[in-house]
Amino acid sequence: MSDKEIRTEYSVRVSDRARRVTLKVAPPEGLVVVIPRNFNRKRIPSLIDEKRQWIEKTLSKVTPQAMTGSGVLPPEEYFFPSLEKSLDLETPNAASCLRSIAYSHLLPRAQVLSQKTGLRPVSFTFRNQKRRWGSCNSRGNISLNQKLLFFEPPLVDYVILHELCHLEHRDHSSSFWTFLSSFDPHFRDHRREIRTAQWAIPAWAY
């Protein structure tokens, strides 16, 4: 069977802001094809064939648990890399359970980093965001993604420090990155690793 005869499962997302076609691997959906609104969908299979080597290489990095279909219930117990230990999941409502764990275990870490840096937000909150790992609004409130529970500790710290530094620098200017480097000298490595960290998040966490 030739490469062009191999069927690749994908979903299509129409974007009014897209100016060109973009292929991305986004657990738990798998391969997502983002297209401009007036794009001819009949062209998608040929574009996938052109990028098949990249698609297969990227999909191979995704853990099987991250690609399970929707509606999957969480296990009774799960090992969280951020905490370096297993915890019981007391409810089938994954979002509620993860938020509770985040407040109990990640909030203290955020408070420690706030104290160490001297950067004090008005509040820390945890939300079940799909892609965004953290944000800091103009009022000084920091929101963190409860899925940080599935990241290794250095990446959790990177996200928290990143948002804390936005209390001083609202943009991503060179001054911001210099300021961040004073607290996280390896931020470039962490920034790169964060781009693929989502591939290990299990489907039930979404």
Topology:
Blueprint: E1 11-15, E2 22-26, E3 30-36, H1 44-50, H2 52-59, E4 77-80, E5 85-88, H3 94-117, E6 123-127, E7 134-136, E8 141-145, H4 153-165, H5 174-181, H6 187-197
Helix pairs in contact: 3-4
Describe this structure in words.
The protein has six helices and eight strands; from the N terminus they run E-E-E-H-H-E-E-H-E-E-E-H-H-H. It is α/β, with parallel strands linked by helices.
Major beta sheet summary: 3 strands, mixed
Helices and strands, in N-to-C order?
A: EEEHHEEHEEEHHH
Tell me the total number of β-strands. 8
**Strand line-up in the sheet with most strands:** 1-3-2
Provide the gyration radius in Å. Answer: 19 Å
Structural class: alpha/beta
How many helices?
A: 6
Which percent bin holds the helix content? 25-40%
Q: What share of the residues does DSSP label as strand, in percent? A: 15-25%
* Outline: globular
Please state the average pLDDT score: 87
Distance between the termini: 35 Å
| Unreliable runs | 1-6
Quick structural summary:
By secondary structure, the protein is an alpha/beta fold. It contains 6 helices and 8 strands. The relative contact order is 0.14.
